[in-house]
Design goal:
22% strand, alpha+beta, 4-stranded antiparallel β-sheet, 3 helices, elongated
Length: 83
């Protein structure tokens, strides 16, 4: 919970990445620009950042449980102390 980590999280949120509290991973909704062929079809698909391989991977788990675990923008926003 240092200040650099907080600002990094805020920037990732700005870039449409969302942090999942239970899975402890960053996720982003997949688009065709991400190289996911059927990203524009009905059901949303998500990419996650794999720390072990340092790359984005397609999430193949339960989509219903994933969207409910994302932190909100307020959770991620850097809060400063007022004087």
């Amino acid at each position: 919970k240092d200040i650099l980590q907080a600002y990094s999280a805020q920037e990732l949120y700005t870039r449409e990445w969302r942090y999942h509290a239970e899975l402890k991973r960053w996720f982003k909704r997949a688009t065709t620009a991400d190289g996911v062929a059927n990203a524009s079809s009905g059901a949303p698909q998500f990419l996650y950042f794999d720390l072990n391989t340092w790359e984005r991977r397609l999430f193949t788990g339960n989509l219903q449980s994933i969207t409910s675990g994302f932190l909100t923008e307020d959770d991620v926003r850097v809060k400063t102390q007022s004087s």
